[in-house]
């Protein structure tokens, strides 16, 4: 590979060197999701979906200024965060990775009131805690919560009170990051609102028989329109399971089964009602507890396993409980967890 690259010309690549004309349905990038255990799923994203997302973002947020870039490249929000900022001609402020681990993000931000922050709930909680112990005051012109279900907790209220614009973005990776969005939360929002679909996107709230449910009734959300992924790379079985024919569009159109519950309010706003299965989201990453349980049960000496999300010391953690195949006098053995989880290995 190195030798082949060394033989290449150093001049700028031109369109004449393309092996075929670029079309909107060609692959733009592949991003992996639900890879906590087992075999990760590569989501193939076409140029047309990416173009629709960026066109909508620039049309709805033309006033966006300096944007804080802190998202790992493996997190789909980073695509929106990076390209929307550059296309709007704004400045991208790159925060070192160590600053997030050491809770010194605020020290790397300029003293301005024109900052835009795209971040999941867990990052907002971290920044709110950092602000309490920091001498530096940073005010955000715009905060966009994305990647997790949004909760208006007391810990982040001081941070949110200092921003003039708060938006809640909803959308799985399979629909190019954002499917719907909602402007500032209000005290009357007892259930999480995720707003209305973005441009060229439809959300169908359906029953188990794929019938449209009435306004105010919970159902499973299906997404159709310009933002859909091509499917899972090399996984035709999963693609056919999650990307199905759409009975509400033109012939040949598809819709994506999200597994998320939702309902329409009478004012045309969507509310999010959790999952229809056991999948959870932790710090923006989708995790299948069943996959982790299966991995635990393959370990020597483990009989049964259960995995849940629990709040420990104010932070959501992934916790696994196991029982042995044979009883032992050992009451409890603690296994050192990965950096993103807390695992109790119990012998009872």
Describe the structure.
This protein has helices at about 1-5, 45-60, 75-85, 95-100, 120-135, 155-160, 235-240, 290-295, and strands spanning about 25-35, 40-45, 65-70, 90-95, 115-120, 140-145, 165-170, 180, 195, 200-205, 220-225, 230, 245, 255-265, 270-275, 280, 285, 300-310, 315-325, 330-335, 345. The radius of gyration is 22 Å and the shape is globular. The termini are far apart. Strands 3, 4, 5, 6, 7, 8, 9, 10, 11, 13, 14 and 15 form a 12-stranded mixed beta sheet that branches. It is built from 8 helices and 21 strands. It has about 350 residues and is of the alpha+beta class.
How would you summarize what this structure contains?
This protein is α+β, with helices and mostly antiparallel strands. Helices cover 20% and strands 32% of the residues.
Entry keywords:
348 residues, alpha+beta, 12-stranded mixed sheet, 3-stranded antiparallel sheet, 20% helix, globular, disordered C terminus
Secondary structure: elements and pairs:
Layout: H1 2-6, E1 27-33, E2 41-46, H2 47-60, E3 66-69, H3 77-87, E4 92-94, H4 97-101, E5 115-119, H5 121-133, E6 140-145, H6 157-160, E7 166-170, E8 180-182, E9 193-197, E10 201-206, E11 219-225, E12 231-232, H7 236-242, E13 243-245, E14 254-264, E15 270-275, E16 280-282, E17 285-287, H8 289-297, E18 302-312, E19 315-324, E20 332-334, E21 344-346
Parallel strand pairs: 3-4, 3-5, 5-6, 6-7
Antiparallel strand pairs: 1-2, 2-12, 7-8, 8-9, 9-15, 10-11, 11-14, 13-14, 14-15, 16-17, 18-19, 20-21
Helix pairs in contact: 2-3
């Amino acid at each position: 590979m190195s030798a082949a690259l060394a033989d290449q010309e150093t001049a700028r690549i031109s369109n004449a060197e393309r092996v075929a004309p670029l079309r909107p349905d060609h692959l733009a990038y592949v991003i992996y999701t639900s890879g906590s255990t087992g075999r990760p799923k590569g989501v193939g994203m076409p140029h047309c979906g990416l173009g629709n997302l960026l066109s909508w973002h620039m049309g709805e947020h033309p006033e966006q200024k300096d944007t804080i870039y802190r998202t790992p490249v493996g997190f789909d929000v980073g695509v929106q965060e990076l390209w929307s900022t550059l296309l709007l001609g704004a400045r991208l402020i790159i925060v070192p990775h160590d600053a997030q681990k050491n809770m010194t993000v605020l020290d790397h931000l300029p003293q301005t009131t024109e900052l835009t922050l795209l971040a999941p709930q867990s990052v907002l909680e971290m920044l709110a805690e950092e602000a309490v112990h920091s001498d530096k005051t940073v005010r955000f012109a715009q905060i966009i919560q994305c990647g997790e279900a949004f909760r208006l907790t007391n810990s982040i209220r001081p941070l949110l009170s200092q921003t003039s614009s708060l938006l809640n973005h909803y959308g799985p990776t399979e629909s190019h990051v954002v499917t719907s969005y909602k402007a500032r939360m209000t005290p009357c929002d007892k259930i999480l609102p995720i707003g209305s679909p973005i441009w060229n996107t439809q959300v169908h709230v359906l029953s188990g028989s794929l019938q449209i449910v009435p306004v105010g009734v919970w159902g499973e959300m299906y997404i159709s329109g310009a933002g859909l992924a091509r499917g899972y790379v090399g996984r035709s079985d999963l693609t056919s399971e999650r990307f199905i024919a759409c009975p509400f569009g033109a012939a040949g159109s598809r819709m994506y089964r999200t597994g998320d519950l939702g309902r329409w309010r009478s004012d045309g706003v969507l509310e999010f009602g959790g999952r229809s299965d056991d999948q959870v989201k932790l710090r923006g990453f989708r995790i299948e507890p069943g996959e982790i349980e299966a991995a635990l049960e393959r370990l020597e000496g483990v009989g049964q396993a259960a995995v849940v999300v629990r709040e420990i010391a104010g932070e959501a953690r992934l916790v696994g409980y196991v029982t042995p195949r044979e009883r032992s006098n050992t009451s409890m053995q603690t296994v050192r967890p990965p950096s993103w989880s807390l695992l109790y290995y119990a012998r009872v």
